[in-house]
Write a structure and sequence with these properties.
Pfam families: TetR_N. The protein is 79% helix and 0% strand. The protein has helices at residues 6-26, 29-35, 40-43, 50-75, 83-95, 97-107, 114-139, 145-169, 171-190. The protein is elongated and about 60 Å long.
């Protein structure tokens, strides 16, 4: 992740809200510059283009959410690994412009930035899978190492399903899906080979 000046960091903090709310196409550089207390030409002193700004915001969103995932799993002492993160996802989505931006961007990437977005989001998911697998090994060490990848993929499927509900259907649908998915996934973890 590239180092930014304090002014550029301020622009990114404002831009993440704009991009999370409006998406790439509808977010206005004029509005972002005005909210940062500058004119649009001054914004170009920090970022060469809208794509450049979007990419910097994306890098910061991926990093913020990666840190959140690691923190969430480090604090979690659930008997069922991943439960804490899955159950906090809805609240995190409401509170974090980084997560709203990250998910919106992953599902609707600007065409010109699709390779960068895909690679960054896949890296984020890979890290989520890694910390889940570590938690699985700690909480349920009886699960054979050879089977853990199956549980990781299933967990990422649960999280993906929850993300879809947050983006398209809202908090009530998310809560309903979470209850259903966690019953099935939790039962599968509880029945894991001993």
């Amino acid at each position: 992740m590239r180092t930014l000046t304090p002014s550029a960091q301020k622009v990114c903090a404002i831009a993440v809200e704009q991009f999370a709310e409006h998406g790439y196409d509808a977010a206005s550089l004029n509005d972002i510059a005005a909210a940062a207390g500058m004119r649009k030409p001054s914004l170009y002193a920090h970022f060469s283009s809208k794509d450049d700004l979007f990419e910097a915001v994306f890098e910061r969103a991926v990093e913020a959410e990666r840190l959140y995932v690691e923190q969430c799993f480090a604090q979690c002492d659930d008997a069922l690994p991943g439960a804490g993160y899955a159950h906090c996802l809805g609240e995190r989505y409401q509170q974090s412009a980084h997560l709203r931006f990250l998910l919106r961007t992953a599902f609707f990437p600007p065409a010109a930035l699709r390779p960068i977005i895909s690679a960054g989001f896949e890296g984020y998911l890979a890290r989520l899978g890694e910390v889940f697998e570590q938690a699985l090994g700690t909480c349920l060490p009886q699960v054979p190492v050879a089977r853990r990848g199956v549980y990781v993929d299933a967990y990422l499927g649960v999280v993906d399903s929850l993300n879809v509900e947050l983006i398209y259907a809202g908090p009530q649908a998310y809560a309903r899906r979470l209850r259903a998915m966690w019953v099935v996934f939790g039962d599968a973890l509880g029945a894991a080979p001993r």
